[in-house]
Write a structure and sequence with these properties.
19% of the residues lie in helices and 47% in strands. The radius of gyration is 21 Å and the shape is globular. It contains 3 helices and 13 strands; from the N terminus they run ααββββββαβββββββ. The chain has one domain (2-238): Lipoprotein localisation LolA/LolB/LppX (outer membrane lipoprotein receptor (LolB), chain A, Clam). A 13-stranded antiparallel beta sheet has the order 6-5-4-3-2-1-13-12-11-10-9-8-7, with helices on one face. It is of the alpha+beta class and 244 residues long. This is Outer membrane lipoprotein-sorting protein.
């Protein structure tokens, strides 16, 4: 009888431990979403227009993105007087690159790995907003220091099995960094993005500075110049143009 009671007590302790752990993860996510403006505000966003700038190896680059959350996205990158256009429309994607940048000047299908990475840009609220609905799972991988402050390390696994480590500030609950391994052009590459300079736009919080490693060496810093919420978007811009 005592043995039975022992195992029963142990089972209860394990269940309570698991429950407390799950609640901790849910609490971190809830506080993060609240810090970013709240789930209701994010759900009210039907479209976004964003203008960014960056400098890489002496080149000034401007970028404009137009996004309909979860549906379509178009980015236009201007560099050295040339334009690179990338579009995601539903489950398909295409791009136009000038000849001097390895393209043909015509719309070309996006490679599968690039299509997958680019689709992530349509999740405006970030990886943690509605992660369960997206088929992802999340676990708390610990708590550590970053730049003198405490951060929660969350391990997110998407429905395809791809893992992203997300570092959430324990004080502001903003995401300060994401890191993971991605397949690009058939090669596994470690990717890391740091987020800072958080500002509010109509009650929603966005990181206005993003830093990541350049494939050509050094760091790339992307600065957001403007964000327009719920602009009028002509969905014809997402249609693939016919060949010239």
């Amino acid at each position: 009888m005592k043995v039975t009671k022992f195992f029963a007590s142990a089972a209860v302790a394990v269940l309570l431990s698991v429950s407390a752990f799950a609640q901790t993860v849910d609490e971190v996510v809830a506080k993060h979403i609240e810090a970013m403006g709240g789930i209701d505000k994010w759900k009210s966003i039907k479209g976004v227009e964003m203008n960014n700038s960056m400098s890489m190896q002496g080149m000034d680059i401007s970028m404009k993105s137009v996004v309909i959350p979860g549906k379509a996205m178009k980015s236009t990158v201007k560099v050295m007087g040339q334009e690179i256009i990338t579009v995601i429309n539903g489950e398909t994607g295409w791009s136009i690159r000038p000849a001097m940048m390895g393209g043909t000047g015509e719309a070309e299908d996006l490679p599968k790995d690039q299509l997958k990475m680019t689709r992530g840009q349509m999740d405006l609220g970030g990886l943690l907003v509605n992660y369960k609905e997206k088929g992802s799972t999340l676990e708390l991988a610990g708590k550590e220091k970053m730049d003198g402050g405490d951060v929660y390390k969350l391990k997110l696994t998407d429905k395809a099995g791809e893992v992203t480590n997300i570092f959430v500030s324990a004080s502001t609950y903003y995401i300060l960094k994401t890191a993971g391994k991605r397949t690009i052009n058939g090669q596994d590459i470690d990717t890391e993005v740091n987020y800072s300079n958080f500002k509010q736009v109509e009650g929603l919080t966005f990181p206005f500075t993003m830093e990541t490693a350049s494939p050509m060496g050094g760091q790339i810093t992307i600065e957001t110049e403007s964000i327009k919420l719920n602009p009028t978007i002509d969905e014809a811009i997402f249609q693939r143009p016919a060949k010239k």
